[in-house]
């Protein structure tokens, strides 16, 4: 009797398909939870989306589009150029060094509020020195592979 | 301000470029970069691939007077890195797993002979082994083959799709030859690391595990009543290979004792007497388009390195067997191995 | 006494250097203890076994401890195991108690470190025999127990659990790795993504993306208004550190260190699970946990003592079975194999001198870590006074290094960083909870392997209940942990309702 009852829970996993077994379970749980969330909160959904659209378009709320999208664009460019330049200077970390100097400088300039002569000097020095130290210590001393 | 910035950038670029070309010119005959990256097909820095490569790469770098660094990026990462680099700035080191993965049809494994250039071999790990619990009824591989013939299920813990599975396939094939139709009694229990394989043996969930002399020898010295105690039943390397290790063998097991486990008859086909053996060999892989001069250069430098005792002793001390074959020879040899094992794997598929 | 001859100035010097470098690696967002050990591994060949191991143990202890610095000051965990330190550390830093939080963490760390060293020394072989009683079934249950943490850490139960499950789902993207015994087939993606995603997303880039880059994006969006006016964290004000913080914390210290040591001992369960488990058990079982997550020192105590206790714990299976307990000890094993030293069940007996030296090195590393950090902390804490337009570009730069270096140079990991940085920002906006998500991500892969492998071996779901007495005990713990979490969640919601 007991063994019959237990056999309800029998399961055989075909090795060739075993990569799908667990993900299927997780996907189902995820879908069910998503359903629950939508059911309990659907009233918040539409106004929320509208609000988000207006904010992104800059028509409402305090959203610094210049700095936000600037960060995204600069970071994307940084990563992209690093990949490109690392083919030019393979296995030396020069690509990391060059791109980081440009990136750190540009991002600092984007973030800083009021510019003064002194600030520019600080930012330039920081952009030159910090990546150089990082590059020297990591790529030269510790021989970490950098782009 | 922008102008200054642009000029600085340009200056940096040029100076960096000059730096690169100047250092590259240092070795006139060798078109190898001054910073060579060696990617290995393993993500572990504690494993035999890293161990063997770091010994060889250090020697090679010294001989060529360049900087070389071993990066444990793993199989897929290594193949990708190699593909992208036609100029020989990146080379790869891996073992027989590189073509076995393809033979077993593992997703993502390319045909290395078609997509890459096989470089020199340099070392063998003679330690690929199969073990049973110390109190196992099976004393030898013959016992296991016979038991399978008598409809006993033999569960073997392996990591699928590579070196670990090959011995399992050979065993299954041997059962097929001696007791046709009974090969399904040899069952693979697919698992991951050595720790996982050992754990399955401790749990009593498998009868045999794949392991290695290096990782498992100490377990064979434990008293029989210890849950962790194991016993070697099979080393896949031929006796000739093991004969080249140091006489002390590994731990408390002497070379002579190890040789017994290699002296095992695993038939490969019905029409020949040849017994199955397998040496896990480490070799270089290059981008298909890498300059032949660079290939020759590494060949020559390695030949010089192996002339000296230092590297041979270093390898032997870590229970590896020196095994240098220059590219051309190595490439043919690895292809031969590929064909030999392909037959076994194909026979079992049918 | 051959051992004394090894206690050279070189030996001590290497431990000190290791600890210091480790702390720096740990303290830089994106760099981890594992990376510090990996980077220095090739050096050990030249030093010989004893000195090499001394250096690496210093790096290990220093790296794990250093992770608390950015966790407290910047809300970015320096290493995955310091996630829980952010929960209370950062709120304390915002109240101007950064130094107090860090010092609490340091004291907890040395307690955890020494506790686990003692456990390692006295009980290693016995514990290793106990650890091998945990088969795939019990390991799955341990992970399940750690996942129940999600329920006690989230502010909204439904969203928290959803985020946790989403984390598990994300971790499964890629192939079912043959390295774990899977079949190497891809899932949860389209064919064209296979080239990049064959190995899935790596933990470290995901973690520093969600914590590091997201923080930058969230601040960029406000245009750094906080930099000059409100929100700017000051070092002054707030309570000063005193050892009085530890009054009534002894149970917490011992429980958390015990959990850390034990989870460290179980190969494959993962180091980050230790501090997560310890934190949630403190939350569930302490007399007053109402302040946890809002800046309670007890949270830092449990997180930091458990993650340092991990060090000794992870060495237990390494030295008494030859099996690494976590990702850092997996690299440590290389120091032995490179020298041709076997590690296995006979290691301790065969190498008594080395064994004593390891224990000595571990103790010294902990003491030095304490010394260095306790007195340097005042200066380190000034990091938060650096203006963000200087600090943030550098954080992104270091995150790039960390992401790129964690798998020894894979560009896709850098893109993962950006992807999850943006994802973290979106998640923040739509109310997903990032901490449950990360915990799910960390534990997802192991959960899959142990779950599927258990079923493959036994072929019946009931095995999870009937395998062993340990399994039954774990179920009881899971039930209790869940019940507490739900109870606390409801109580907190009521309290909030009453207050408003």
Automatic annotation (TrEMBL), chain A:
Domain DUF1468: 21-147
Transmembrane region(s): 25-46, 67-86, 92-112, 119-138
Top-level taxon in the UniProt lineage: Bacteria
Keyword terms, alphabetized: Membrane, Transmembrane, Transmembrane helix
Entry annotated with the keyword DNA-binding: no
InterPro entries hit by this protein: DUF1468
Protein name: Tripartite tricarboxylate transporter
Lineage of the species this protein comes from: Bacteria, Pseudomonadati, Pseudomonadota, Gammaproteobacteria, Oceanospirillales
From TrEMBL, chain B:
Entry keyword annotation includes DNA repair: no
Keywords noted in UniProt: Signal
Keyword Signal applies: yes
InterPro entries, sorted: Bug_dom1
Signal peptide feature range: 1-26
Record protein name field: ABC transporter substrate-binding protein
Protein source organism: Salinicola acroporae
UniProtKB/TrEMBL annotation, chain C:
InterPro entries associated with the record: DUF112_TM (IPR002823)
Keyword flag Metal-binding: no
Keywords recorded for this protein, A-Z: Membrane, Transmembrane, Transmembrane helix
Protein's UniProt name: DUF112 domain-containing protein
TM spans (from-to): 12-41, 53-73, 106-128, 140-173, 193-218, 354-377, 389-406, 472-490
Start and end residues of each DUF112 domain: 14-439
Organism: Salinicola acroporae
